[in-house]
Each structure stands twice: as structure tokens, then as C-alpha cells.
Amino acid sequence: MKESSNNARTWMAVLAILVGVFCVIIAPVITQTSLERVLTELMVVAKDKPQYSSGLPIFGLFYPVWRAVIFIAGIALLAIAAKIYQGEEWTYPVALTAYAMPSIGGMFMFLPYISWVGGFPLPMVISWVGLVGFAATILLRAGKRSKKLIELGTMVFIGMLATHSFTLGIGSQRMLMVRPGKPLFEGLEYWILTWVGEVDWIATLMLIIAIPLLALRKASGWWLALIATLAILAIDAPTQVIRTATLDYLYGALLALGALFFLFLPSILEHYGKKEPETAQKLVDPTATD
């Protein structure tokens, strides 16, 4: 971060304050307004189509959960803004992780909103604000523009995959809550739902953890993202074959393929395929000699 110009660090710090204030004050109001509208419309639909009633408790739980996560992300941005301006290197992965929370959470809340409410996608405002901070932080750092753009594309694809996988987990739980024959699972199309949802949720958590590790150029971040992406592809593809009513799992598999494409780009691989510096090896093994 210290290699970045004073002007760039100033913009990054100001952006952290603005997005932080948004996440702490404005995003909670947008979240509650969106939730009330979704629940209101869903209650009307559920009267004639009881299979959609499971969305009421699920959205009532997870909208506030994401609001809390986004709120804490805002506090984090406000807390580290001064250190961002000072060029502290550790603020880069912290800031990217904080910006990722409104980006992912806002996108998740957008999907039920656009399905049941329609009109202007209110929760997308939260996602857009997070994405602005995310992209600006990467692009304002010192470095070759082409490499920064590839890094941005990789991170954005990982975030999109995390959002979609989290949403698929929500969808599987919603369908299981109103399945016929409950508490039993009647047939392969419901058996697979007990599998795909949990895998997608675990993979979502792995992808989120991978974001700061990738920002730190840690090989563990690359491998974590790779394992999560492969797991999503391996479960979403067969689920789409078994459950053909929608194309949601196909979209998940395609997003996973897109993430794999970015993860294996040469400019990405070069960051995570290098050996540790000799000095670092000596710190690990004091007996190492020249």
C-alpha cells in the first residue's frame, strides 16, 4: 500500500469512510425496507401457493443476518481508514473483505426482491456501493493495470460464485421445508437437496475466507478458492440433471467454470506458484545454509 501514491491512498481512505458510513447507517434501512416488501408480497403469494410459505421464515432470518455482517464491515472500514491512508499493508486484505460483505449480501437480498417485489432493485444499491469500494481499492493500488484488472476479475467471479452458492443453499432449504412426505425424503430429487445446499454453504464460507488470503498472495487462498469452486461444480452439475425445473444449478456450474478460468490464468498462477523467499525459509529452518 505504501507504494501507492499519496493521492491514491487519500482516495482509498475517503472511500472507506464513505462506504463505512453507508454500511452503518443507510444499508440497515435499505435492508429492513426490502425485507418488509418481500415478506408482504410473499404472504399474498403463499395464500394460493403454500409451497412458497417457507420463504417467510428464511428471509426473515437471513436478511437481518446479512445486515449485521454488513454493519460490522462498515465499522471495520471506519476503524482502518486512517491506516489505509498511512499505507499499512495489512489494511488491503481487511478492506477487500469488508467491501465484499455488502457486495455479496446486497446481491443475495436482491434476488428475492426482484422475484417477489419487482421494480427498482433496492438491495442492489448495497451491492453496488460495496463493489465500488472493492474495485477502487484494487485499481488504485500501485501496479500494472492489466494485472490489477485480472485480479479484479478473479475476485469478482469468486464473489459472484459465493453469492450464487449461498442463494442455492437458501433455495434448497426452502424447498425441503415444504417437501411432500416430510419428515421423510421422497425420492432422489429431495435427497440431492440435503446434499447440495450444505455443500454450497460450506463452499461459500471457503470462498469468503479465500478473499483476504488471495489479497495477501497466499497459496492457501488460491487452493481454498480452487477446492470450493471444484466442490460447487461437482455438486451443482449433477443436481441440475436431477432437478430440471429451473436452470439455477446450471448457472452455478457455469459460474464455477468462470472462476476456474480466472484462477488458472498465467498472471494469477505466477503469484501463487513461486517458492518462498530464501530469507523466509531460513526463518522457518534456522539450520538452512547458503
Brief characterization of the structure:
This protein has 290 residues and is mainly α. 80% of the residues lie in helices and 0% in strands.
The helix tally amounts to 11
| H-E string | HHHHHHHHHHH
The backbone outline, from C-alpha atoms, is: globular
Distance between the termini: 31 Å
How many domains? The number is 2
Mean pLDDT: 91
Which blocks of ≥5 consecutive residues have pLDDT under 50? 275-290
Cα Rg = 21 Å
Strand fraction:
under 5%
Number of DSSP-assigned strands: 0
Structural class, judged by helices and strands?
mainly alpha
Describe the biggest sheet? none
Please give the share of residues in helix. over 70%
List keywords for this structure.
about 290 residues; single chain; 2 domains; Four Helix Bundle (Hemerythrin (Met), subunit A); mainly alpha
Report on this structure.
The chain has helices at residues 6-48, 55-86, 91-116, 124-140, 145-177, 188-191, 193-215, 219-242, 248-263, 266-272, 278-284. Residues 275-290 have low confidence and may be disordered. It has two domains: 1-142, no CATH class; 145-273, Four Helix Bundle (Hemerythrin (Met), subunit A) (Up-down Bundle), CATH 1.20.120. The chain is built from eleven helices and no strands. It has 290 residues and is mainly alpha-helical. Helix content is 80%, strand content 0%. It is globular.
